[in-house]
Amino acid sequence: MATKAVIKDSDFIQGFSASLVDDYLSAKNYVKDVPTQSLLHIRSFTHKLTELLGQDKHLVFSSPNLYDRIEQLNQKRLIDVKTTRALHRLRADGNRGAHPEKYHLTQEQLLALAQKSIKDVLALVEHLYPKVAGQNPPEYQYEASDSVTVKDLCYRAVMEDDPKAQYLVGISLKTKALMLKDQELSWADQADDVLVEHGELTNNVSAKAADTFARAAYWFALAAPKNMEALYEHGVALIHGYQGAPDIVKGEQAIASAAEAGVVNAMALLGYFYLVGSESLDQDLQLAQQYLQRAADGEQAEAMANLGVLHYQRNDLAQAYHFINKAAQAGYPHAQYHLALMLANGDGCTRDPIVSEYWMAEAAEQGQLDAMFMRAQHMLNDDNAFGSDLTQAEHYLREMIKYGHSVPAMIELSMALADGILGRIDVVGAAALLNLARRHANEKEADIIEPLWRSLALQVDKVLEVTEDPAEIHSLKRAQTLLA
What we know:
Number of strands: 2
Oligomer: single chain
Shape: globular
Number of helices: 23
Mean pLDDT: 88
Helix content: over 70%
């Protein structure tokens, strides 16, 4: 009996649709060394797949936005629930790839996300094969690709003077630098007993981040004359001073040129400059709307959110809700938080506390600091919460402290640890957090901290008077030292 032939995964995608092969192979090739680029190709693949799924029924999409396209296919019953969820998952992964720093992703997490997305693509194509190709899916074998490594890109960038390769080397370095910066922030404030050790680590990481930003800026500048995406990044590098002193005016000029060339991120940023005014550009709401709308049409979620802000400022709440809702649906955490507030208050929409809570939770899960704080407070202050698992609330507060250096989060977590709300009493942890909060507090926050400080110090003194447990005495004396 003949053995059934097993084809390569690239041939499997080719048999499904030739229009998707290039994005699939690019996503695979970049997955190891430039995972951000891999995830952007996953998003492009998903966009083309929605087009393919609407072709047979001659569906004319009412919006270029990927979320809207998926929902239109779903509403027309052209895709099932499993496909809808899978498409939205790939869309969300693509968004994270575009801005990994906003989701506090490490290099390892970004790589894992890109690898998972490749597998999700294959699983979705396998599910859709009978519908699109009219036959059962053939057996296929995933074949490791000759990945486009940073070494390969550097060869093309240096020896072949390839602007696209130069841009991608810059993107790889910028992503690494942003993650190092995140790491630096997460170590910047620690309890006194680890300040010295982590202070050294922070200085190390800070120096590496600065050096990596500078190298990224070099490649962007080299590619900028021939690659408009690189020109945009060159502008950002100038504004933020990747190679030393910022040159804001020159940076804004580069971004404006990239915007005129149709770079979506450049149009979004230029629209924001016109929205709020900048170093070289006066506020101009008409131009702001023009550039933000063009960027929003290109599925730039931050531009959608800023269009919502523009309409909110004009007191056109219905339009503000429309654009903030679209940005939230596109996966932008800040828009999800503001959508939750609008739904809670009924601003430009029907008041809906249940849907508001959903979007607040969604924003918190994606690392939006204000949403995390509101969720944590809600959990800790819920009358029915005592005795329940409040791990999530503690996680949110610690993430706010780690990435946002939030004094209110330090105070909230300190009180929870001192009062045993989290299922344990940790006076050392509570004292360390109050100590940290005091160092960062403004005048109003300092007024809140002082009575809590005295109360905790009194609590420690009273327990020391009665306890005979050596371990507890050691902890309490440590707390005393922190509160001295």
